[in-house]
Inverse folding.
């Protein structure tokens, strides 16, 4: 134990080995729902037969990246396939280009991030983005996930006149009632600060679904891990045919700012931020995230990113990489052998989790300074554009362009970091590309 304590500098961070391990267990319990939700999300694009492979890829990539974060960056941050990013993969890119092309785009994006992280370009850009937009991006992704969760519940449905409306036909269905029960149950558990509230809700809703015959009882509880459906199934040729620049750029922007907002928030919570708001060793954190994304794509999952749920372990006193290593080991021990259980879980079971993940992410929006319209209006536009366009990248682009223009035209152009002007121009070109201008 002494050697472990010295390696992770546990005492220097005012913690203990026992506290770090307990914090790691807490983080795992809080984010273990991804082992169920991610296969469910990606199987919408890959097919139900892919669930065992997606689960293995999810567990392996999460375990590898989180352990690497602990050992290399010595931070208590856990990583896994990102919520919001998996939705973008499954519901935007894959339906248009195919999931193999989407995996190839994630892989290339990861390689680009590795280069940018090694050259410190990524951290330079990170420090150039105003806090108001950082907070708005996280909140916008949260509303996007809530929107998807409400769709899975059946609470909202398509409408020719208004685009969306109340899903009246679902209100009396048992699946909807179970989903509502899960939403209330999870909310109460969160209020009572029960660790693993979201995971407990998934388990309870699954059991209820089985009792009422809505979910099949699996013939076995455990199985050996497999990657036969997804491993190295990247379609680079299709990526080029699909217009590689647009697809890769979209993943790039979504991943970049999702990770940035999460790392900033977690660092503030853990007390890492310097007086000028910078994050020590951010290059190591971002490089770990980039390597995790690249490995995850090879295994067969969407972009791997740092999880805001790591805050639960930080709340328990986790301050070093030992917390992350503990979480990563649990992902490997638990996640690799439960595919029969995951395969039977339906959307109405996980829908309440998506709704409440949106609630957690929405809290960052209250950090926006509403006394300054030049900060608040672009942040607001990010918040609403992400769910309304069903695209995280589009929402980010709208925010960057409007922030830069409003500041410039109101005589506050000097307050904008030079890199923000570059990013705004890039997004203008991006929208021109989407609009078919070139």
């Amino acid at each position: 134990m002494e050697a472990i304590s010295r390696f992770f500098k546990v005492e220097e961070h005012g913690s203990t080995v026992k506290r770090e391990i307990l914090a790691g267990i807490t983080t795992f319990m809080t984010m273990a729902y991804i082992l169920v939700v991610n296969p469910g999300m990606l199987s919408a694009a890959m097919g139900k037969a892919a669930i065992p492979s997606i689960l293995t890829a999810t567990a392996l990539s999460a375990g590898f990246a989180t352990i690497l974060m602990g050992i290399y960056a010595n931070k208590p941050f856990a990583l896994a396939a990102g919520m919001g990013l998996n939705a973008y993969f499954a519901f935007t890119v894959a339906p248009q280009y195919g999931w193999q092309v989407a995996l190839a785009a994630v892989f290339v994006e990861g390689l680009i991030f590795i280069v940018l992280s090694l050259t410190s370009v990524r951290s330079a850009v990170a420090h150039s983005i105003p806090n108001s937009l950082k907070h708005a991006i996280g909140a916008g992704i949260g509303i996007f996930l809530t929107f998807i969760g409400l769709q899975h519940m059946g609470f909202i449905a398509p409408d020719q006149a208004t685009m969306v409306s109340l899903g009246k036909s679902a209100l009396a269905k048992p699946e909807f009632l179970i989903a509502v029960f899960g939403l209330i149950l999870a909310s109460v558990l969160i209020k009572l600060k029960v660790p693993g509230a979201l995971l407990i809700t998934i388990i309870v809703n699954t059991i209820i679904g089985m009792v009422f015959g809505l979910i099949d009882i699996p013939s076995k509880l455990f199985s050996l891990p497999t990657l036969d459906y997804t491993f190295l199934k990247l379609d680079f040729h299709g990526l080029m045919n699909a217009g590689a620049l647009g697809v890769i750029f979209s993943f790039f922007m979504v991943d970049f700012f999702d990770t940035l907002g999460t790392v900033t928030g977690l660092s503030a919570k853990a007390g890492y931020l310097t007086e000028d708001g910078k994050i020590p060793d951010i290059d190591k954190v971002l490089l770990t995230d980039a390597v995790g994304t690249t490995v995850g794509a090879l295994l067969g999952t969407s972009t791997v990113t740092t999880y805001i749920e790591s805050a639960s372990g930080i709340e328990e006193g986790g301050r070093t990489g030992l917390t992350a290593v503990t979480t990563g080991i649990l992902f490997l021990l638990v996640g690799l052998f439960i595919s029969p259980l995951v395969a039977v879980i339906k959307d109405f079971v996980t829908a309440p989790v998506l709704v409440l993940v949106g609630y957690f992410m929405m809290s960052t929006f209250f950090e926006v300074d509403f006394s300054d319209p030049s900060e608040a209006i672009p942040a607001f536009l990010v918040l609403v554009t992400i769910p309304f366009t069903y695209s995280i990248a589009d929402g980010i682009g709208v925010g960057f362009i409007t922030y830069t223009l409003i500041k410039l035209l109101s005589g506050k152009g000097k307050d904008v970091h030079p890199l923000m002007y570059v990013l705004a121009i890039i997004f203008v070109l991006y929208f021109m590309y989407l609009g078919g201008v070139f």
Q: What stands out?
A: The two ends are 60 Å apart (CA to CA). The beta strands are 79-81, 156-159, 163-166, 304-306. Residues 2-366 form one domain. Residues 28 and 82 are 15 Å apart (CA to CA).
